[in-house]
Amino acid sequence: MFSMPLGEGLELRLLEPRHAEEVFEAVDANRERLREWLPWVDHARSPNDTRGFLSMQMARLAHGEAMTAGVWVDGLFAGVVEGRLDSERSVMDLGYWLARSFEGRGVMTRACRELLRYAFEDLRYARVELRCATENQRSCAVAERLGMQLDGVLRSAMPLRDRRLDLRVYSLLAADWKARGA
Prior knowledge:
By secondary structure, the chain is an alpha+beta fold. The protein is built from 6 helices and 8 strands; from the N terminus they run ββαααβββαβαββα. The chain has helices at residues 20-29, 31-34, 47-62, 107-122, 137-145, 174-179; strands spanning 3-7, 10-14, 66-73, 76-86, 91-98, 127-133, 149-160, 163-173. A hairpin with a 2-residue loop joins strand 1 (3-7) and strand 2. The radius of gyration is 16 Å and the shape is globular. The mean pLDDT is 94.
């Protein structure tokens, strides 16, 4: 099992099907606020749905298409951070969600910083992108704390039930990462 301690009780662990109950419980407990921004939430109706998703993510990892890690704080499951990998373009697309009870502690910023390190130092990728709804202030703040640059806004880019969301596109380049001495 992959595990990456990040200090101060924060740890990333590779998500596996055996984590389905924990992940589903966190999604279910945070369902109303997560579904405001994430279209997949309505499809996660049971631990079996989550188990299927985690199995698919393990297959994507085996094919070099994604790295999906659970975020644990003091031994408690807190959320997910994922890098969708495009080796042909040398780009990682960063995504995440965090349970409400862990917000405001810098947890997701630290977890994402580790995926940035992985993308630039281990994979030697050229670019990391992050897309989030323009109205999702918490998610936009994570991108900004990571030093990502706002590239622009994709208007009406993501369908979400009865509406379409505008998405901010942020990026960080390998040269930016290296210049910061990260």
